[in-house]
Amino acid sequence: MTEITTSLLTLDARTQKRNAAERRFRAYGLAAVLTGLLLLVILLVSVLSNGLGAFRQTFVTVDITLDRAQIEEAEAALVKTKIYRGFIEDNIAASLEAAGVTEANDASAAADLLSKDAAASLRDWARTRLESDGEKWSKSFDFLAAGRIDGYLKGRVTMESAALDSKVTPEQLQLADTLRDAGVLVVKFNTGFFTLPDASENQVEAAGLGVAILGSAYLMLIVLFLALPIGVAASIYLEEFAPKNRLTDLIEVNISNLAAVPSIVFGILGLAIFINFIGLPQSAPIVGGLVLTLMTLPTIIISTRAALKAVPPSIRDGALGVGASPMQTVFHHVLPLAAPGILTGTIIGLAQALGETAPLLLIGMVAFVREYPAGPPEGFFDPASALPVQVYNWTQRADPAFFERASGAIIVLLIFLAIMNITAVFLRRKFERRW
Amino acid sequence: MTQNRAKIRTEGVNVHYGATHAIKDVTLDIPDKTVTAFIGPSGCGKSTFLRCINRMNDTIDVCRVTGIITIDGEDIYDRRIDPVQLRRKVGMVFQKPNPFPKSIYDNVAYGPKIHGLARNRAELDEIVEKALRRGAIWDEVKDRLSEPGTGLSGGQQQRLCIARAIATEPEILLMDEPCSALDPIATSQVEELIYELKNNYSVVIVTHSMQQAARVSQKTAFFHLGTMVEYGETDEIFTNPRDERTENYITGRIG
Ligand SMILES: Nc1ncnc2c1ncn2[C@@H]1O[C@H](COP(=O)(O)OP(=O)(O)OP(=O)(O)O)[C@@H](O)[C@H]1O
Ligand SMILES: [Mg+2]
């Protein structure tokens, strides 16, 4: 009989094979993670490179000085904005002179570089002056430059493309160069992108996300205040109180099914019930909010029930054992332990709702809205837009400048989503307790 | 010893978990101001029977209890009985320690708080201290009352749960293997507590330790495969068992 001794220092064949399999498995996992990261980076780079430009805008800086007589004269005229445009031209001429531009000092041509609403915004300012005391006022205005000029300074429009373009001429671009060198034409951060309402096709420079951000905020408020209490109450009832029978099984299956229903179906439902049957206004955040609430409820219910299930039954026994009522047991012991899970589920549901487009298209939130909705709660019934719908809307327009703005809106949307998800992680960390 | 009147009476109690018949036709009277021990091999239904007495089995969907259980002559499975009120009267220490994931203080104070036993903070402090002292854990936790109860060792957690159960001053205390995780010193402290509680309450204790049953209890019931085989004075059961199965179990031949 031979004695077999094996050293721990040499690996036997089985161990070697097992280790190899383990190494392969890790490599697959790593490859999967890297692929995901790579795709994310590509997405971010493409969105950022297309959209960052939307946060900066070309402005024409003009010092305007007007006296009471000038304003009163303009207000008496038939075509008022034409007079105000004249004021702008006069003051540009002065600005150019001050900046030392002598050749090509054509104030009228320079005023052509301005956005169409420059005269209107000057008039708005001037009219409020009339109500105040004083005789003469001056202010440094940053008028928006026209979309094509903005495109030229950002490199989207070139001399060659301008030659073929009916909205801009190469001469105007040359003038823009001169004005830029003189410091009259500047590219800077565009707060209007966040505050201005949408604008028409030929005024891309004035288009902003103001109404869309407000609309999305209203939607989130409605969803939060409807879906969270309803969802949590439903989950607590189903999980802690409802008898387990056929009916509750049926409800359970249906809630899971509801979570998988395509969002456009909810849009059709909203159109049929909230607008056509109940008669709520079209394009209003209240309808969008209700539809998104229906969509978010299953997400919240499923995650809340999972969070409640994860609370060990022994905690419930302990509470019942000292004579707590079932409701005291839930509110004093179970709910606090389930809170992180509920919060995470809610925020994920809200984030989903924030990015949802299809149902909002169906209930008319894609309409062109220039007016800000009123403050809540009346504003819930005013027409509004929403961020993802605004993105969709802008990508449908012909002017490539709108594509830049759509990408910018996507960045804003992504930032909001990131903030929500970080909040979810943060809350989770903060409230997580061990037992 | 003098025989106290029956505090808990059970008559023909059967418990089913779905298709499993866990308790078969158990009839016994548990006297007041006495310690009663339930012994028997694992899985014979001791915990199940204990949980019938404070209706904890209500929380298990598949569990069905039939028969009659009365406390002080009142049928606790009567429709008019509120199990919440019943559990205030019948405290329980569970087989597995289950402190709340709250501070040690809050663990003990919770019961008195929801039942309004303390009018102010000072009274509550007093109740908590008294309960922790009787639970033989005061000295170990008096400096860390605000730390979570879940951070204690297994044995400390069990004593915390005992303190939690007696803080509400129940009339009956059900203890499911309260000493299974305790060292000999803590065990003897808990046994002293049980002995003291006996002056005012009925205590029902499930235990796997024959010595403990012999030390603390006046009455012992032996369960086997869901039936109650023998019930009587503890001395009788241990010195002169009538049933062969009881004798085999006590002497270590089944279990
Ligand atoms: N929740 C439950 N669902 C289904 N069956 C159960 C449940 N709890 C207990 N049982 C069954 O009932 C029987 C008795 O269990 P029980 O817990 O009362 O035993 P025990 O005597 O306390 O045992 P141990 O000494 O190990 O604690 C066992 O056969 C067990 O499988
Ligand atoms: Mg047990």
Question: If you had to describe this structure to a student in words, what would you say it looks like?
Answer:
Chain A: Its main location: membrane. Chain A: This is Phosphate transport system permease protein PstA. Chain A: The chain crosses the membrane at residues 27-48, 217-238, 258-280, 286-308, 334-355, 406-427. The complex is a heterodimer of chains A (435) and B (255). Chain A is mainly alpha-helical. Chain A is built from 18 helices and three strands. Chain A has helices spanning 13-51, 68-76, 80-99, 107-111, 118-131, 147-153, 159-163, 170-181, 192-195, 210-241, 246-259, 263-277, 285-309, 313-321, 326-355, 358-362, 387-395, 400-431, and strands spanning 56-67, 136-144, 185-189. Chain A is extended, with a radius of gyration of 31 Å. Chain A starts with 12 loop residues before the first helix and ends with a helix. The model of chain A has no long low-confidence stretch (mean pLDDT 86). The mean pLDDT of chain B is 90. With 255 residues, chain B is of the alpha/beta class. In chain B, a hairpin with a 2-residue loop joins β4 and β5. At the A-B interface, α14 and α15 of A face α2, α3 and α6 of B. The structure holds adenosine-5'-triphosphate (ATP) and magnesium ion. Magnesium ion binds at residues 46-47, 95, 176 of chain B.
